[in-house]
Amino acid sequence: MSGSEAETATTPTEEPIPSEWVMAPAPESLATLVAAGHSPALAALLGRRGVTTSEDAEHFLAPRVQHLHDPLALFGMKEAVARLLAQRKAPGHVVVVGDYDVDGISSTALVMATLTACGISAEAILPHRQHDGYGLQPQHVDRAVAHGATLLLTLDCGTSAHQEIALAMAAGLETIVVDHHLPGDGPLPDAILVNPQQARCNYPYPELAAAGLSFKLCLALAEAAGRSVPVEALLRIACLGTIADMVPLTGENRVIAALGLEALKDTRSLGLLALFRTARIHPPFGASDVGYRVGPRLNAAGRIGSADGALELLTTRDADRAEELAEELERYNTERRATEARVVEEVEERIEARGALPPILVEWDEGWHRGVVGIAASRISRKYRRPTLLLQVEGDSASGSGRSVPGIQLFDFLSQWGSEYLRFGGHAQAIGLSISMDRIEDLRGRWETAAEVWPEETRRRRYEYELEVQPGAVDHDLYRDLARLEPYGMANPQPMVRIGPMQLKQLRPFGKGHLRVFAKGSDGRELSLLGWNWADRAEQFEGEFEALGFVELDRFSNRPELRLVEVRPYG
Question: Is there a domain that residue 212 lies in?
Fold first, then answer.
């Protein structure tokens, strides 16, 4: 989290809700893990991440391929593999419909490569965000039929596409759905469904992203077809969707992410190598490289234009074409940032003009780009500490995305009005939906009224730190211990550290609004603090202060430092 994100946002008529600093509780498994030989600090960190035994700790700290579960344990997987294998001798071919985000793109790249390797003819379709909207659409079914397909395979979509699947079945297209989105309370699609979120699936780890499920499908299909399984090559792509889709980085997701990141350093993919050059990253790779450098560039293609270029980048074997596509994604990403900034600015102007704010923020405009309303909603929800829905108006309907805040399950909340949406789906805290314009004002009012029961605490910025140390303890040993928990992500956050008291020695602004702070602790030791976008917060370092932040390595000095999250007077 950057310094600007750490500020408590208020409107002119609201009093700020003070932030709360809370020490994370000691886990029940602390004594067991200490007895197994782990330091108290590492044992506490592991325990809070669901580790309860020494075997769990070994799996967490040293993920291996052997820790992955059997793909055939997924409900529907055996049937899906059998149907795909039968396609080798059946007329027609497979049409694969993915999604336009990193999870969908990487899933499609994985499955297309594996189908080809197994001798199964296939064609890929990625929906166009502006022209098609999310997921499987009737025009995709029409296109599959026109191209002579006999089997439809959806990746990262399809669980809620009942009408489209019915159209496919009526046209003679059998359908396989590989998806991880919540099914809701309605009926399941009339298809072979591989989705660990469905009630009839007892898979040991239900939190896989679509890329993880596609990885599993590829493993099972290749083995059943008698093909050698290029596990490392598959993991390189599967880790991209897993990390970018913000699923919990625990269990199998952690194995996929950790091993995939390790394998990325040896990639021979011309597209990935070109993308690394434009993104200015190099091995060793971390989750932040994918989350903040690679992911946004792959996502930008589907947000601003067509995701086809991102898919081609992951599959091309032409060096010149790889460079062209990487530069194209770079241009898309630059445009995406500018477009997103305009939407955020317009939404903030409307919000600031409203005075007292409702518990849920809902705005729409025909001038907004549908491809950026989701990330704009994420920014607004973080700043104002309220679930936020932003929609683009097109004709007589509006389509967009919603993002929530900790403590509020947005999917469950909005599901109460499910029958009034044109389309609806998503995860607990991130949703997509379409609404008729003649219903949107009424629904906004009903949402705002229903959300009044949400406690004020959901708008409090609550920081849960895991270690409290003096500046002298921030050394290479501490950094190495914390780094053993990487890759960081949901359910495995980067450990937050509380340090203080300290006194200012020197302030050094740099770059465009950044700040480096040199401070001295009560233990007499000095520490470097780094504040991104903190140049306007220099007054917070007056007198004795304490800080929250993340211990990271300054690549220039090769010394551990604290990346700032929040500062307050000590005592």
Answer: yes
The answer on 91 and 229 residing in a single domain is yes
Burial 421-439, CB ≥16 within 10 A → b, else e = bebbbbbebbbbbbbeeeb
Q: pLDDT for 385-433, tens place per residue?
A: 999 999 999 999 999 999 999 889 999 999 999 999 998 988 888 999 9
Q: How far apart are alpha carbons 155 and 369 in whole angstroms?
A: 24
Could you tell me how many residues make up the chain?
571
- Tens digits of per-residue pLDDT, 140-180? 999 999 999 999 999 999 998 999 999 999 999 999 999 99
Q: Is the domain of 114 the same as that of 160?
A: yes
Residue 479 and residue 400 share a domain: no
Q: What is the DSSP string of 336-395?
A: HHHHHHHHHHHHHHHHHHTSSPPSSEEEEETTS-TTTHHHHHHHHHHHHTS-EEEEEEET
Are residues 189 and 162 in contact, defined by beta-carbon separation less than 8 angstroms? yes
Average pLDDT over residues 542-566: 94
pTM (predicted TM-score): 0.88
**Dist. CA 416–CA 181, nearest whole Å:** 17
Domain that holds residue 436: 354-458
**The residue type at 207:** E
Cβ neighbours of 557 (radius 10 Å): 9
80 and 223 together in one domain: yes
- CA–CA distances in Å: residue 116 to residues 111, 221, 225: 9, 11, 12
Most distant pair of Cα atoms in the chain: their distance = 77
Burial of 337 (0-12, 13-18, 19+ CB in 10 A): middle
CA–chain centroid gap for 10, Å, is 27
Among 347, 380, 345, 379, CA closest to 363 = 347
Give yes or no: residues 283 and 239 share one domain. Answer: no
8-state DSSP, 489: B
176, 319: one domain: no
Both tokens of 68, joined, read 């992955």
What is the DSSP annotation of 73-107?
GSTTHHHHHHHHHHTTTSSSEEEEE--SSHHHHHH
- Residue 1, pLDDT > 80, answer no
What are the distances in angstroms from CA 290 to CA 28, 100, 243, 299, 489? 33, 17, 7, 11, 11
Contact 213, 178 (CB under 8 A): yes
Considering 321, 343, 365, which residue would you say is the last residue of a domain?
343
- Sign of the four-CA dihedral 262, 265, 269, 271: positive
Q: How many CB atoms lie within 10 A of CB 186?
A: 12
Residue type, 277: R
Helix axes 319-353, 270-279, angle to 10 degrees: 50
Q: Determine if the peptide bond prior to 284 is cis (ω within 30°).
A: yes
What is the rounded distance in angstroms from the CA atom of residue 204 to the CA atom of residue 74? 9
